[in-house]
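Demo today. Your pick:
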Amino acid sequence: MRAGHVLVSVVIPAYNARETLELCLGNLMESQPSPPYECLVVDDGSTDGSAEIAARYGARVLSTGGRKGPAYARNIGARAAAGNVLLFLDADVTVHPDTVELVRSAFAADPKLDALMGSYDDAPGTEDFLSQYRNLMHCFTHQTSRREACTFWSGCGAIRKDLFLEHGGFDEEFGRPAIEDIELGYRLQQAGRKLMLDREIQVKHLKRWTFLNLLKTDVLDRGIPWTELILRDQRMPNDLNLQLWTV
C-alpha cells in the first residue's frame, strides 16, 4: 500500500439486523464514484439470517461466535480489515452516494486527521412521530456540534486503522450497545489526536423508535454508563453524542 493512498474498509456489526441490513448494504454497494475497498459484516450471534444477507451482497462475513456486543464485533472486523482507514457503520443506516468518497477524500487530504465523524441526515427512514422526532433530534445535534470533536461516533465514524489498534479499539467491557464509541473518543482526545466532525458526510437512520426502546437506550445503555464515565474521568464535554442528554 503506497504512502498517502487511502483504502476504506467498512465494518458493520450485525445482530438480528435483517430488516435494515439489506438496505444498508445495497446503498453501500452503489456508492459513487466507487464502493469502499471492502465491507466486513461481523455477525453477533444473529438468528434471523443476517449473515446470509451480508454474504449475498458480497460482504466478508465474520462471526463473534455468540452474542458479545457491538464493541467486540467491531474490534473483530477492525483487526481483519485490509484497508488503512476503518469506516464504522451501524446496520440500521444507509449511506448517501458520496459518503464513502467524502471519507476517503478527507483522510487523503489531511495526513494529520486521525478520526472523522459524519451526521444523520434530515430525512429519517421511518415515518411515525416518535421515530421522526428522535431521529431528527439526532440530526440536529450532529449538525450543530463543533467541527473539532472530543469524542467518537460509531454510527458513521472513520478512523485510521493503525491508530485504532494502537489505542486498543473499543472497550469490550461494554457487552451491549452503550457508550463504547464515546469512551474511545475520550481516550483519543486525551492523547491529543485530531478528531473532526464533517456535517456533509451523512447517513440515513432507519431505526424505528418505541417509547420502551427509547427509555432503555437513554437510561440503561447510554445515560448510566455515560454518568459512570464522567465520574471516572472527572470531565463532561458538551459534544457530539453527548448533547442528546443535556438538551
